Structure formats: structure tokens, C-alpha cells
Amino acid sequence: MRFSEPMDGLIQVRVARDEKRRLAEVARKRGLTLSDFLRQTATEAAQRVAV
Fold first, then answer.
1. pLDDT by residue for the chain (51 residues), tens digit each?
2. Which SUPFAM superfamilies does this chain map to (predicted)?
3. pTM attached to this predicted model
4. Cα–Cα distance between 32 and 35 in angstroms, integer?
């Protein structure tokens, strides 16, 4: 996923080692980086809550 502007914001989240492994595995299966997967998932969840 490419963006037209630099992504210089940073959100740090602490997760357990096994949780990170599971998230990375799901992201890989969807053809996404872990960052892209987390960004996409968080954005979709925020949109559902905002409605």
C-alpha cells in the first residue's frame, strides 16, 4: 500500500509475543505488511464505531 504523503506518525502498542506472531501471520496471509494490516483493521473499526 503506497501513500501520497510521508507517514511520520507513530502509534506504539505493546502486545504479547504470541499475539504479534498471530497478527503477523494473518497479515501475511492477506498479502499485507503487519503495519498495513493494523492500519486497515483499525481504520475499519473506527469507521464502524463512528456510524
1. 566 788 889 999 999 999 999 999 999 999 999 999 999 999 999 999 987
2. Ribbon-helix-helix
3. 0.80
4. 8
8 Å CB contact between 37 and 26: yes
- The answer to whether residues 7 and 38 touch, using CB atoms and an 8 Å cutoff, is no
Axis-axis angle for helices 34-50, 17-29 (nearest 10): 90
Q: Which three cell numbers stand for residue 23?
A: 497478527
Q: Distance (Å, rounded) from C-alpha 49 to C-alpha 3?
A: 24
Closest CA to 15 of 32, 6, 27: 27
Helices marked H in 1-51: 17-29, 34-50
